[in-house]
Amino acid sequence: MIKGDDFLYAMENTRIVVAPSQAIETFGQTSFHFRLVTEPMDEIGSVRLRQGMIHAERPRLLAPQYVSRLLLEGFGERARGFAGWMEEQKDFHILRYGFSLRKTDLSEQLVREPKEDFLLKLESDLRSENNPLSVLIEGIDDAWEVCLMKFTMDLIQRSSGENVAEWKRRGLI
Questions:
Q1: Which of 117, 111, 99 lies closest to 52, judged by CA?
Q2: How far is CA 149 from the centre of its chain?
Q3: Cβ atoms < 10 Å from Cβ of 159
């Protein structure tokens, strides 16, 4: 189990070496192929390469009425006033993103090579492939899933502006 300090350490030490050039699709599912390189603590001079897919669901635009219903679950009387205020806000929308990491697509291998050299090779390979849905991440071995979460958070932040602009162009908001 990851402790609070380990979580923060992994978040702070996750580096996107090659970012995908494509954002999350506004109207469809997007699948990103990741390569995550970490250094195992018990294997000096080696790196662990994990590869797999992260699937981003189509982002959803939640109207104030829907958001207020979600907020009322488990909340008391005071929350109803806030929910009523939210329902009156016609231009208030929330973006909802969903991701899934399918473990069936996950592979892992141990490579006996210095991390810097291995990262340079992978970076060169990815750039020559020119796949807009590929990402190379450098992270922490024990908390590698946190590194993937950090990537998805960054990707959502980057994609949200493009998604909102697309909805506006189509007159949906």
A1: 99
A2: 5
A3: 21
Statement to judge: residues 85 and 102 lie in one domain:
no
Predicted structure pTM score: 0.78
Domain end among 46, 72, 96: 96
Compute the C-alpha angle 124/127/132, nearest 5°.
Answer: 150
What are the tens digits of pLDDT across the range 119-139?
999 999 999 999 999 999 999
Cα gap 168→166, rounded to integer Å: 5
Q: Specify which residues 30 forms β-bridges with.
A: 56
For helices 144-169 and 4-12, give the axis angle rounded to 10 degrees: 60
Domains: count for the chain: 2
Same domain, residue pair 122 and 138: yes
CB environment 128-144: b (16+ within 10 A), e (fewer): eeeeeebbbbbbbbebb
Domain that residue 19 falls in: 4-59+97-169
**Pair (102, 23) in one structural domain:** yes
